[in-house]
Every structure is written in C-alpha cells, then in structure tokens.
Amino acid sequence: DFRVGLFVLLLAPDAYLPLRMIGANFHASTDGVAAIQKTFDLMEQRFEAPAPIRISPAPGKFTVLVGESGAGKSTALEALDGAEAAWMPQSPMLLPGTIAQNIAGFGQIEPALLAEAMRCASLDDVDLNQTVSDLNQALSGGQAQRVALARAVYRGLTHGAKMLLLDEPVSAQDKKRAAAIGKNLKHLAARGFTVVAVSHQDALSKVADRVIEVKR
C-alpha cells in the first residue's frame, strides 16, 4: 500500500549510497593518479635557468640600474658583491644600540669619517646617541634606510671598499632627500668610488653617470 511504497522510497537513497560512493571515489582516485603522474613528469623535465644578467660597472662612476620589478636588477647587483664591496640590501636591518654603533660598528669609531658618511646619506635628523631597538621602533622607515646607507658609505671609507652596491637606497625618501642623496653619491663616485644603485626613483637616474635598463 501507500505506506510501504513511501517506506521503500525513503530507504532507497541510503541503500544505494555505498554504490554511488564507490563510483565517485573511483573517479576521484583516477583523477588523483593522473595528477600525480603529471607532477612526476614535470619534476623529471630539465629546465634551463635563464642566464644571469651581468653588468660591468665603470670605475669611478655612478651607475643606476632601472627596470620593471622582477627584471633581475637586484640579482645583477648581487652578482657584483664581493670582499671589496660595501653592500646595502633592499631591506636593511638595524641592531640594538645607538645610531653611531649601527653605522660604524661596536668598535673604535672614526668621528670624521662617521660625519662624512652621515652627510652622504643626508642623515641630519637623528641623534648619534639615540638608541634603537631591533624593531627600529625609534626611527621612521626613511631614517632607518638612511642609517643603512650611511653604514655602507662608512664601510667604504674605512675598509678600503672602493665599490658601493646599493639596492633601492632612496625608496623611502621624499624627493628633496632623494635628490640630495643622489648628488652626494655622484660626488663620492667622482672621488674614485664605483657606485652602483638599483632604483625606481628619477632622483638618482637624473644625476647618474650611467643608467642601465635591465630587461627580462
């Protein structure tokens, strides 16, 4: 009667559920096996890495590398790094201590060269005795960047590193400070230093001796 038919209709989906699950799991496992096989095929392929971008910095010149993001500017800069180069990374770190210690280190400081490095980095808005934490909480982003730039210049002045490699040294600076830093770096190059900087800012490109566009 009606009650029996209704009872059968209600139970039928549950009765056939295991059969449906078998079919669904079979198709899922088949797709999974195919995906794994494709993964292994890709892993076994040999990919040729693109040739590294190499530049030849001009001694005693201020060179700026420009180009779109991801073109390999920082990689080209890193390829020049060596024992005779003072390096400023794109995301510099500061150590707990004073501004002076972050620039000149924790040993003996040469005041005249420290002052020169600070002038080159346009670092006239901080106190040398100011203490910073490892999180740079006491400095703005622009100030921390200029401390790192002063550190690289100081190393060049005191350690005989005649090459300065600077990765985005003015990205956090306003136009006025960026222009001042650009002129200072060019003056440093005129004194015999080889200065190579990666930058998206026109302030450096306008005063550079050479501008090299790095393309993909």
What does this molecule look like?
The protein is an alpha/beta fold. It is 48% helix and 12% strand. The protein has seven helices and seven strands; from the N terminus they run αβαββααβαβαβαβ. The strands form two sheets. It has a five-stranded parallel beta sheet. The model has no long low-confidence stretch (mean pLDDT 86).
Top keywords for this entry?
7 helices, alpha/beta, two-stranded antiparallel ribbon, 216 residues, 48% helix
Task: Describe the secondary structure blueprint for this structure.
Blueprint: H1 2-44, E1 62-66, H2 73-78, E2 85-88, E3 97-98, H3 99-104, H4 111-120, E4 131-132, H5 141-158, E5 163-167, H6 175-190, E6 194-198, H7 202-205, E7 210-213
Parallel strand pairs: 1-6, 1-7, 2-5, 5-6
Antiparallel strand pairs: 3-4
Helix-strand makeup class: alpha/beta
End-to-end Cα distance, whole Å, is: 78 Å
Mean pLDDT: 86
Oligomer kind: single chain
How many DSSP helices? Answer: 7
Largest sheet: 5 strands, parallel
